[in-house]
Amino acid sequence: GGEAGGGGANADGGGGGGDKWDKGSDAGESSAEGSQAASGITTSTDMQSGTELIIDSRRCRLLKALTKQLAGPVLMTPMERLRLHSYLLLAVMVATHVVAYIVMTVLISEQYHDINLVHRQALAMDRSQLIAVRAMMGAFCERANVTDKVSVCANSLNFTMNKLRENVNLMEKHHQYVFFGDSRNSIMKLMPEVYDIWTSHQLEYHSYLDTAQPRVLTAFGGAWVLGNRYIAAAREALYWLPNIREKYRLHRTYQFLIDNGLGPLFVAYAKSLDLLVDSAWRAVDQLRIALITLLVVEPLFVQCCCLAYEWILVQRLERARLMGILAMVGLPAPVLRQLATKEAKVLDDSDDDDDDGDSDNDDGGEREGGASGGASGNEKMLATAAQDDVRAGGGGAAADANLTAGGGATAAPPRPLKFRSVKKSEPFPQSDASPMKGGRRVRTPPDAADGTTSDLVRADPPGVGEVVPELPPGARRSSWSPDGKRPPAATSTATAARIASDTPTGGVVGMPLRRGSRDGGSIQPRNKGESHARGLHINGKQLVPSAATVTKFMVPFVLWNMALVIVYVVSLLQLNAMQGPLASLNMASHIIYRYTRVRAIAFGLVSQDDVTSRSLWREMLRTELRYFESEYDALMYGGIPITQLDSVFKHSVPASTFASTSFAYEFFRNKRCFRYDQEECLHTGDEYFEVTHNGLDVMVRRMLAEMNLLVADADEDIVTRGYNGTRYMYMYKVGGNDLYEGLQQAAQLFVDYSISRYDQVGTLHTILLAVTIVLVLLYLLFVLWPHLARLQKDATRQSALLSHVPPEVDVRSHVRAVFKRTIAWQKGGRALAGRGRSAAATAAGMGAATSGSGNGGSLAAGA
């Protein structure tokens, strides 16, 4: 009966039970069977051969209840928070990177457009000069007095018309590209200053009217209108030149092309080019500032905040995981010793086993039965541990003392048991499970701290007003020091048992007490700061979060953040070297159109009939040669040319000869032919073969020498040896193809170099985006999801191990008490000493409850 068992356990059944537990005799089998019937466990105790526990349906219900506790809200809440918030953090990080990638892509595409805009503006200027050259050549070579068909006049009129048509088409394409952009679906508006040059009515130009009385009409417009009228006049030349031939030089379109092509249109294009280069230069600065902003916002702010929050989530989950381990290592040392020597199999759970009546809020024990089974069994375990401590201690008063349990029955010393000694802070070893037919074989872990006992208390706290008893004289007060370390001489289990037997209210044995502590010192951090940093301390054991787990979660984020910083830094370094090539591209573009202008003015000089006109063209050629030489020297050896002293863009040009190996090779060491059509190249033996196959610099210097000589020639020499003289013959044989096409290829080097650097930056960010998406998937597949699954599996295995705790210990109340106290300590940030009762007061309340209730046999292992 419950009342009989509870009240008479010490008098009748307690001592016999203790003898049967310690001695392992067959005479006490009936009492053991009564305890087994009350607990639902079938056992056969034999200290000589070992013990095997076979778990029945009640054990399965206990396993389900423990699983609900260990894998319940305490663990699942931070686990779900980590899972869901990790999804959110990854989404935020990836979205931020995608936005940064889009911003980078847009900015780089704008740089593409700016570079192409500068180059295409220079090509539009170049083609406008070539249109004027071909118009003058076509009209001049069709004169009746031009009988020597050499030099430029060796070409047929059809050849000249084809070249004129090609130049008109190319100029129209470049002209429209600058104003409209390269997309047919969208128009990229020019910068305000450039747009004003192209659209305002500030540009003055002249229109020639071939009426009965010829007139010159002055008009105003922008570069867009003037360029279109220039292209229209050139298309009219394609009709009038073959029809009227030499008289075309008297036509209004001829006058429009020569005056406006070499005058107002060229000036407007030059201003537009300077503004475009200046805008591209400032765009590089803006891109660099945008990269720095993205570097601060994405890797240093967003990613770091996500990293810190992920660390907090992992730490919270680790603390929740430690609670289950805390419930394991917080068991009394005798229980841990017994579990270390037991092997059992957990039967498969059945659907008809329902634990509706065994909720986590029950304050009673899991196993029903007499109090004698619980009390005497606990005392027997403690007596065994005490006897072992006495024998290990080597005699003394404690060795000769009779250990009493409950009502004072003498417990005969059993055969000494030997246990392995584990260091106080040694981590709790993992249990290993092996498959077994009909269930799972679980080997309980060995004792984690030998010689350290935990408090066995009720789940119910003592009533208000209960007196905390003082310890007898000579008893050691505490196994804890104020700093959380175990003192050298800890109170033994035998001493604790003797103190409990002398307690007036009876009850169970408690942990060694610490003065001023109301919870028996079960969980005691070292101090407020150190406990949070190093984890929880219980029974001489230290539980800290797994550094490997935290590292596993944090390392991918840290590496990703470092990769972002490295990519942004490399991008900044790439962009820092972009303004120099841009200045070189601008100067190479100047060289292209300046050389074409020199060709046009030189032919205008040799084709004039009167002295006044030749003097005017001579001065124009002298000025253009000076400009060309200054710009060419600035391109090759650095500096600012004289043409940029009053312009908007006044940045110094780097020395391309020393800055670019490929550029220096093209100008000084390349022995190839520079013509696009290699079949038209000059062959060995030609008088100009050597000059055309020794680099561009030789051809440029020879051209400057020949044109300076042409400027210095007398009028008579120009008349007699003009277009067919050696001066202009070099321009026709070399300058028209080899030199012109070589300069085009040299300018393209800077365009290709600049675009390739931007391509490298864009490719780097594209690779980083692809790697980011792959790493996110790998993080989910190999880090987050396996870790959460392992925690659930570990909680289930811990429940299986705790289900093997002897029936005398109310393991459910023990787990619940550990969870409550740990959560309270974590929330309050303080020790649990002020939130419980002392073990002696609990024992006193336990004895009162045992004497007045039949359910007093349920004990809780206080942690």
From TrEMBL:
Keywords: Membrane, Transmembrane, Transmembrane helix. The chain crosses the membrane at residues 87-108, 553-573, 767-788. Residues 1-45, 345-378, 404-533 are annotated as: Disordered. Residues 349-363 have a biased composition (Acidic residues). Residues 27-40, 487-501 have a biased composition (Low complexity). Residues 1-18 have a biased composition (Gly residues). This is Uncharacterized protein. It comes from Volvox reticuliferus.
